[in-house]
Design a protein that fits this description.
Number of helices: 10
Mean pLDDT: 88
Radius of gyration: 29 Å
Distance between the termini: 43 Å
Number of strands: 28
Shape: globular
Largest sheet: 7 strands, mixed
Strand content: 25-35%
Length: about 550
């Protein structure tokens, strides 16, 4: 199943402080070069260069870098600063003043989306000045246009009746006219009033208020051969100005304009054209909302005895097992949005000391009261130690794990301060399906998303019911407020791959499972009228 990702276009602005010239008595003439890592080859590809600023140890570069931001992708960037001595800029002939590597997630999740780091030189550990990167979403990228049209006196097109009119909105492009919206059909009338509709500003005119727009009116026919009634051309600037008072446009059919008696094919009236800002995922992150990540790992016996190479939990000193690959791929992205880097790590389906009873929720670090692990490496260390401490058993119950995390999400309900992501890694078919459905339906009203990755080659068909992209999830007559579950089989991305190919596959898996999170996040915030905070609390 293909997942559509929501991309935001960011402008990255760069400043440097205390640059040290490679020449003893002169201030540097500096440029910045931005690179992005290509996942498949692990090499860095140049994205762009700044202008040259002369004689300044503290340059503020005017040119910005445009980058598409994707939450589900680990976008590794490298900034290199050079002292330029020649008019023709060949980087291998210039002196590098320093470089800095980071992820785009680190920039957008930094305080006020401004990241400051030391510039380093290879084989020279000390700082060679500072580089400051600030990120800002492109203007208008999240604005929404609301339009409301009616018409009167349209041409009669149906022999036995009136017309069944609808509108098509098109925008001008280099290749001609591109349709961007179609209204509903209003049956059997020459004086229709269409429902108000909204669409992203980017979709309507790509944020260009002077781009020509065409509004066409058609008469709908059951055979698909819809009859053209007429059209008018305008711009968004004109429509916005018109909306301050009702504005009418003549609906013209050029094929009829040669007739002496022809005036128009009706009048289309604009009642409303308004532009409203819509908060983006990055607005909330910039406002300090934390992504709270929890991982839950399946310790049921169907994984196989961990000491055997055939086990899904087998710890190979040369190759990470699928649980480790999937966990690291997702956690490496999510960790950038959690300031304390402390992650609860849970297990289920094992017999746990000291009572050696089956536990549906236990803490991987062995602490009865504190599930938190320090960073990804802490989670992996706790996972490996658990394999030595617990005995794999069963059943595969999800509801206790979901309810455990939901308790913490409920405490943050309505605050806009935290959003919870639960990653469940499992090898088998779920044992408590009805209880899990009920837990998910309840969690759908909380600041929470659930990612399920199926490890191994079991039949995961039943799991797709939980990933309710087509049919809303229902439990005991109650429907989920929104779809919060994303399920993918690990095998679809990393089959028998090893080495770098397995790393690339697991990164693609992470991108897939995280692609829906920003939209799920916004659905929750919008449903509960939660505004992003303007800035981090000091």
């Amino acid at each position: 199943r293909r997942v559509m990702e929501s991309a935001s276009r960011l402008e990255l602005h760069v400043s440097c402080r205390n640059l040290r010239s490679s020449r003893l008595y002169d201030d540097p003439h500096s440029i910045v070069v931005l690179y992005c890592q290509v996942l498949e080859t692990s090499t860095f590809q140049e994205l762009g260069r700044s202008e040259l600023i002369k004689n300044s140890p503290n340059p503020d570069f005017l040119s910005s870098f445009l980058v598409d931001y994707l939450f589900g992708k680990c976008q590794k960037l490298k900034f290199e600063v050079y002292n330029v001595e020649r008019r023709v800029i060949k980087l291998n002939e210039q002196d590098m003043l320093g470089f800095m590597e980071c992820t785009l997630g680190e920039i957008v999740s930094a305080k006020s989306s401004k990241l400051s780091r030391p510039l380093l030189l290879k084989n020279k550990g000390k700082s060679h000045g500072q580089i400051i990167i600030s990120a800002e979403e492109s203007c208008g990228s999240n604005d929404v246009v609301c339009l409301h049209f009616s018409a009167s006196g349209l041409d009669k097109k149906d022999f036995m009746g009136k017309s069944d009119p609808y509108l098509v909105i098109l925008r001008q492009s280099e290749g001609g006219w591109v349709p961007v919206h179609k209204t509903e059909v209003v049956k059997k009338t020459l004086n229709p009033s269409w429902r108000p509709f909204s669409m992203p500003l980017r979709t309507l005119c790509n944020c260009d208020f002077n781009r020509f727009l065409k509004v066409q009116c058609y008469d709908w026919d059951r055979d698909g051969k819809h009859d053209f009634i007429g059209e008018f051309i305008s711009t968004l600037n004109e429509l916005v100005a018109c909306s301050r008072g009702r504005k009418s446009f003549e609906c013209i059919n050029k094929a009829k304009t040669d007739k002496k008696t022809y005036k128009n094919s009706g009048i289309i009236t604009l009642f409303r054209c308004s532009i409203t800002p819509r908060h983006s995922f990055l607005d909330y992150i910039k406002g300090g909302c934390q992504i709270c990540f929890t991982v839950a790992i399946d310790f049921t016996a169907s994984n196989g005895r961990p000491s055997l190479p055939s086990s899904l939990h087998y710890i190979n000193p040369f190759e990470p097992n699928p649980y480790i690959l999937a966990l690291r791929a997702v956690a490496e992205i999510v960790q950038d949005y959690d300031s304390d880097k402390l992650f609860p790590a849970l297990g289920f389906g094992a017999r746990v000391p000291p009572d050696v009873e089956v536990s549906d929720v236990f803490f991987l670090n062995g602490d009865m009261h504190n599930p938190y692990c320090e960073g990804i490496d802490g989670v992996l260390k706790a996972y490996e130690s658990s394999l030595q401490r617990v005995r794999l058993d069963g059943p595969t119950n999800f509801a206790p794990i979901i309810n455990h995390v939901a308790k913490f999400a409920e405490k943050q309900h309505g605050s806009g301060s935290c959003y919870f992501i639960l990653l469940i890694l499992t090898d088998g078919v779920i044992s408590d399906m009805e209880a899990t459905k009920a837990a998910i339906v309840k969690a759908a009203g909380l600041p929470m998303s659930i990612i399920i990755v199926g490890i191994g080659t079991a039949d995961f068909t039943a799991m797709t019911v939980l990933d309710a992209d087509v049919i809303r999830l229902e439990s005991n007559g109650k429907y989920a407020e929104r779809d919060i579950v994303q399920f993918v089989p690990f095998h679809d991305f990393v089959s028998n791959s090893r080495g770098h190919a397995a790393v690339v596959g697991s990164a693609q898996l992470a991108r897939c499972v995280l692609a829906e999170v920003p939209d799920q996040f916004l659905q929750y915030m919008n449903a509960h009228a939660i505004e992003p905070k303007s800035s981090f609390a000091s």
